[in-house]
Amino acid sequence: MNPVPVAGFRYNVVMLALMVSLVPAISLVGTQVKTWCFRSPETSTDDHEFIQALKPMKLRLMFFALSLTSISLPVAAEVYIYRGPNGEKLFSDRPVHRDENHYRLVRRQDTLSDAAAALTRAPVSTGGSAPFRRYIREASQKHKVDPILVEAIIHVESGFDPQAVSRKGAGGLMQLMKDTASRYQVRDRFDPRQNINGGVQHLKYLLDRFNGDLRLVLAAYNAGAGNVDKYQGVPPFPETERYITKVMGQQFQLRKAIYGGE
Fold first, then answer.
1. Are 32 and 54 in contact (CB under 8 A)?
2. Residues with catalytic function
3. 213: pLDDT confidence band, cut at 50, 70 and 90?
């Protein structure tokens, strides 16, 4: 793996180093101004004019140095946060290699926002659907989708882990690919509310496209609508068949638990 301090961090370090390097120059200018200001009365008129020119220069240098630390460049980078075998946290710009699987992924985000705080936070608890039901209900009502179906999909897709990442790069509770997330204006796939809202919108699109045929909808959610069109039905992929069975089974169990039957 290639653990890296992210680009914004490297930039700020460079800026800090540059500011520190300017301190001697600023101090020297200040010292010279002070020295020349208290020279003997024999100081020439030219010297006095030079001193007056140096005074604002010191101020400008100080403002310049301070401004360097406030500049922040926009950075677009994925951040992977892993926990190592000894409890240490490791930041990387890419997934770990297979021979480094002793590092466990605890968080992944599409932006660098709040990345520093993640160093000290414990991993998000994945204790079931309860923390996310408000978002499920909200998105389901807005887009007119069965919330039990949404919860069943999340259960199978991510096990209610908002930081889940698939081998193919799908992320978050409803396992959105980047292009799908972008289509529904999901800026951070690992934000539960955004992820669920985007996933439910995509589910609604598939329900409309396949006229509510749940098997086709689930096949499209798993394997892509293009494959459903290509095979004119559920694609002959074992993974997709298992996925449909799992989601429909989970949906039945949830409905039975809530309503006592179908």
1. yes
2. 157
3. very high
